[in-house]
């Protein structure tokens, strides 16, 4: 009777264990799947700060764009259309290159319409843009 096997105990393994390598690949795949959508949806925002403002904006020279939920747009209180708005803003920018514009959208306005006006402001080259809001507790009651 043989107690020992016929195999040599000092033989080398001819196969690699790839389980740790696969675990690492799956972890990296999960990390990239989570972080990639966050990088694609990033937006560059410049947050204004009053302590570092280079020039003060005169409130009487601020142009006001008002938008209501019925697609009515007013520029400084005068009714206009989305098609005429770029020409009117370009004329105002030609008069004053440092023009400042405040957009006052209705709370029930579709966001795509608001983004359309913001795109027009960017196309015209107006950099000083603000959005007028009101505190939640000051909102009028809804009917």
Automatic annotation (TrEMBL):
InterPro entries: ExbD
GO biological process, one term: protein transport
GO CC entries: plasma membrane
Official protein name in the record: Biopolymer transport protein ExbD
Topology versus the membrane: Single-pass membrane protein; Single-pass type II membrane protein
Transport is among the record's keywords: yes
Originating organism: Terrimicrobium sacchariphilum
Location of this chain's protein in the cell: Cell membrane
PANTHER family with a match to the protein in the record: EXBD MEMBRANE COMPONENT OF PMF-DRIVEN MACROMOLECULE IMPORT SYSTEM (PTHR30558), TOL-PAL SYSTEM PROTEIN TOLR (PTHR30558:SF7)
Keyword vocabulary terms for this entry: Cell membrane, Membrane, Protein transport, Transmembrane, Transmembrane helix, Transport
One Gene Ontology term of the molecular function aspect: transmembrane transporter activity
């Amino acid at each position: 009777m043989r107690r020992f096997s016929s195999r040599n105990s000092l033989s080398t393994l001819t196969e690699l264990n790839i389980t740790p390598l696969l675990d690492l690949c799956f972890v990296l795949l999960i990390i990239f799947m989570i972080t990639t959508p966050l990088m694609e949806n990033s937006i560059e925002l410049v947050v204004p700060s009053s302590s570092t403002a280079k020039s003060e904006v005169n409130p009487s020279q601020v142009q006001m764009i008002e938008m209501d939920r019925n697609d009515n747009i007013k520029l400084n209180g005068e009714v206009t259309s989305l098609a005429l708005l770029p020409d009117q803003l370009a004329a105002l920018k030609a008069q004053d290159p440092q023009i400042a514009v405040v957009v006052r959208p209705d709370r029930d306005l579709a966001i795509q319409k608001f983004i359309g006006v913001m795109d027009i402001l960017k196309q015209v080259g107006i950099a000083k843009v603000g959005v007028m809001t009101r505190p939640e507790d000051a909102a009028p009651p809804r009917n």
